[in-house]
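Lecture notes, continued. The same structure-token format from the folding unit now serves as the input rather than the output. Read the line below as a description of shape only.
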């Protein structure tokens, strides 16, 4: 298993890098949701950046939700992550097929659309969650998240994300990184990173060539002295359960539930993230509603 997330700083603590290989977990997401190639790329990029942003959270119970809605045929993406490398997500229309874009690549921007927004919700144990909301730039996700960091958190960031999909639909490689330089970064650090970025191809090309995510980071930092603070194995995993689904049922209200029982004999709810089904009969509903 080679999936991995790294949290890295330079010696002077003027720069931080979050980098991840996510090939196996995106393949798991693809199989779970039966994603088309362009849906795999869109959700894979979103899962990867959700994990990287999750690493910026501090506490075990903190949760990050990333919503991207752009009016395209994919009809929206939702990703939920934490700082322990656990992530889940879905797209509303996993079966979108589009022609490649003008660069011959999977048309993620076309599938997502760009008439919409990125919404970041951080549950960090406060009464109200932190919410950051910016319009989409391109629907290609990396650019949109970079814009979010700049506008909403005032942190200039380099964001790169990629998912390489085989002809069979299988995920060949997936990964990405976020580089953030502190305002007081020395000029030579900025220049070094800029030069290294100019010579940088794509994360997925290096991963497909058999490089590790550490090798990829080395391409970005060159001869700079860096320190790996965290190394975590990320995982696609859903934490849904029957109790949580009962809460969702209660919010539907008795009239709605009664009418579903009348017509279908039971109420069935499917989890968006893992597609597990939960079924409730009339007795279940009565006991949930307390009658
Ligand atoms: Zn679930």
């Amino acid at each position: 298993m080679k999936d991995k997330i790294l949290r890295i700083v330079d010696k002077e603590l003027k720069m931080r890098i979050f980098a991840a290989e996510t090939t196996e977990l995106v393949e798991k997401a693809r199989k779970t949701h039966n994603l088309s190639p362009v849906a795999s790329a869109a959700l894979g990029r979103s899962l990867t950046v959700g994990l990287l942003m999750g690493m910026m959270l501090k506490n075990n119970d903190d949760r990050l939700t990333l919503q991207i809605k752009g009016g395209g045929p994919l009809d929206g993406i939702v990703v939920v992550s934490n700082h322990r490398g656990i992530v889940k997500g879905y797209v509303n229309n996993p079966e979108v097929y589009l022609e490649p874009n003008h660069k011959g690549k999977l048309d993620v921007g076309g599938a997502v659309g760009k008439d919409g927004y990125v919404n970041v919700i951080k549950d960090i144990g406060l009464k109200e969650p932190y919410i950051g909301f910016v319009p989409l730039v391109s629907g290609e996700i990396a650019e949109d998240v970079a814009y979010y960091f700049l506008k909403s958190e005032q942190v200039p960031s380099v964001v790169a994300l990629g998912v390489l999909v085989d002809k069979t639909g299988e995920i060949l490689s997936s990964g990405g990184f976020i580089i953030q330089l502190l305002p007081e970064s020395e000029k030579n650090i900025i220049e070094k990173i800029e030069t290294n970025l100019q010579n940088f191809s794509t994360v997925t090309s290096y991963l497909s060539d058999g490089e590790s995510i550490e090798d990829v980071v080395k391409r970005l930092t060159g001869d700079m002295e860096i320190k790996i603070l965290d190394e975590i194995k990320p995982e696609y995993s859903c934490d849904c359960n029957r109790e949580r689904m009962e809460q969702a049922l209660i919010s539907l209200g008795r009239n709605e539930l009664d009418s579903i029982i009348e017509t279908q004999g039971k109420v069935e709810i499917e989890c968006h993230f893992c597609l597990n089904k939960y079924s409730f009969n009339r007795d279940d509903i009565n006991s949930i509603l307390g009658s």
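Point for the exam: Residues 238, 240, 271, 273-274, 276 surround zinc ion (CB under 6 Å).
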